[in-house]
Amino acid sequence: MIQFEAVRKEFGNHVAVKGASFTVDKPQMIGIIGRSGAGKSTLLRMINRLTPATSGRILVNGRDILALKGKEKRRWQRDCAMIFQQFNLVPRLDVLTNVMLGRLNDHGTVTSCLKLFTKEERMQALLKLERLGIAETALKRAEHLSGGQQQRVAIARALMQSPEMLLADEPIASLDPMNAQVVMDALKAINTEDKLTVICNLHTLDTARKYCDRVIGMLHGEIVFDGRPDSLTTDVAREIYGADDSFSEATTSTALNVGATSAVA
After folding, report:
1. Which helix (H) or strand (E) holds 231?
2. 100-108 long-range CB contacts below 8 Å, 24 or more apart?
C-alpha cells in the first residue's frame, strides 16, 4: 500500500506541489496528467527521492520513504525504479552493459564501469531485452539505437533493479506514435504481468484513457481529479488543463492531444 499524506514541495517562494494526498491500495497503472508546471515531475521525483519534500509523508507499506537516509534511501531508489523522457543511457556503452547498470547499487560504480558482472546477471539482462523485443541490440552501442529502442533499453535497465514500483516521467514525449505505443504496451504489461504499480506522467489524455486504470489530474500543484479514465469528461479536462469558458471544445481537444512536457512539472 502507498499512502501520500499532504505532500508539499516548495522551491523558494514557488509551491510546486500543494498537499498531495491519495492512496494506492493495489497494483495499478496510474497516469498523471496536467499542463506544464502542474507539479507532475516534481511529484514523481519526490517518490524516488531525487527531490526532497518540504513536508508531508509518503508511506509504502507503513514506512515513510521521505525519512530514509544513506543506505536505506539508496535501497529504496533501487526498489522504486524510474525511467525518463531522455532515456539517461550511457551512449558509448553497449546495450547489455547499460541494462546491467540497473544493478549499480549492488555493485558500486567501479565494478559497473569495469563491466564486472556475473554470468547470471548477463543472462538476466538478455532476458529483459528479449522480453522487450530488442535482444538483437545487446552488443550495439546505445547511441546507435532509435529513440524507441533506447527507451526500451531504459525500461530493461529499470527491470534489472527488481523494483517494487516503476515510475515513468514523460516516457513517450519524444517518441513517434508507433514507438510510443510499443513503450506504453511494455509498461502496461509490466503492470499486469509483474503486478507492479506503474505511475506515468503523460502528456496526452488519449494515452491515459487507453492504458491507465486510474488518472490523477494536477493543476498549479494541486490534485484536481482522481478517478477512472472514463470519468474524464470534457468539463473535467477543462478543469485539469485550466481552460476558461471561452475555450471551445475543439480547442480543448487539440490542447489535450498536444499536451505539454515540463521542466518543473
Report:
1. none
2. 100/125, 100/157, 100/160, 101/157, 101/160, 102/156, 102/157, 102/158, 102/159, 102/160, 102/161, 103/160, 103/161, 105/74, 105/75, 105/77, 105/78, 105/161, 106/78
Could you tell me which of 8, 22, 39 has the C-alpha nearest to residue 214? 22
Stated pTM of the model: 0.87
Helix (H) and strand (E) counts in the chain: 11, 10
Beta-bridge mates of residue 167: 82, 199
If we measure between CA atoms, which residue out of 108, 52, 57, 113 comes closest to residue 78?
108
| Confidence label for 246 from pLDDT (cuts 50, 70 and 90) | very low
Residue labelled with grid coordinates 530514509: 68
Does the CA dihedral 117-121-126-131 come out positive or negative? negative
Angle (CA) 250-256-257 rounded to 5° is 90
Say yes or no to pLDDT of 263 above 90.
Answer: no
Residue entry with cell 500500500 = 1
Strand 222-227 relative to strand 214-219, pairing: antiparallel
Which superfamily is assigned to 2-258 in CATH?
A: P-loop containing nucleotide triphosphate hydrolases (3.40.50.300)
* The three three-digit cell numbers of residue 114, written as one number: 569495469
User: What is the dihedral angle through the alpha carbons of 22, 27, 29, 34, rounded to the nearest 10 degrees?
Assistant: 10
DSSP state of 39: S
What backbone torsions phi and psi does residue 14 show, to the nearest 5 degrees? -95, 130
Map out the domains of the chain as residue ranges: 2-258
